[in-house]
Structures are given as structure tokens and as C-alpha cells.
Amino acid sequence: MDVVSLTLYGRAWCHLCDDMRAALEPLLAEFGAQVEVIDIDADPSLEARYNDWVPVLVHEGVELCRYHLDEPRVRAALAGHRATPAC
């Protein structure tokens, strides 16, 4: 089975980003998933796109939540990936 990867767009100085990452850790452990944290300030196009919206958590191009972790939605996305049979 492939490892599920989520993308967390945020900023180094963003306390909501830190909070979301901390809240996400138990789910990552439970589902064997990983998160790639991307600092939007390092990329002008990402900064323009997400400037006032961070943190934003994305899975396979779909925004799962912003500002605060939506645990039921993230859990459903991770569980749905787990249920997908390998090709």
C-alpha cells in the first residue's frame, strides 16, 4: 500500500500552522501517513494563492481544511485512501 501524503501550506511564524501540525500528528501515526510542510513565503505564487488562508491542508489536490484541523474530514480522506485497493 502507498503511503498517504498530505500537504500543509503555512508559514514558519504562524501559530495556527503549528497548532494544525500538532493536531495532525496523531492521525498521521494512526494511518501511517506523512505530511509535507511547505512554507508559502518561500514561493511568491504560493504566497499569492494562500496568503490569508494558512494553514491549508491538502490531499491529492483537494483542500481538506484551513485555519483549524477538520478531523472528521481528514480522517475520512485518510480512511478512504486506506480502503483503496492497490493496483
From TrEMBL:
It comes from Paraburkholderia franconis. The lineage of its organism: Bacteria, Pseudomonadati, Pseudomonadota, Betaproteobacteria, Burkholderiales. This is Glutaredoxin family protein. InterPro entries: Glutaredoxin-like (IPR008554), Glutaredoxin-like_YDR286C (IPR052565), Thioredoxin-like_sf (IPR036249).
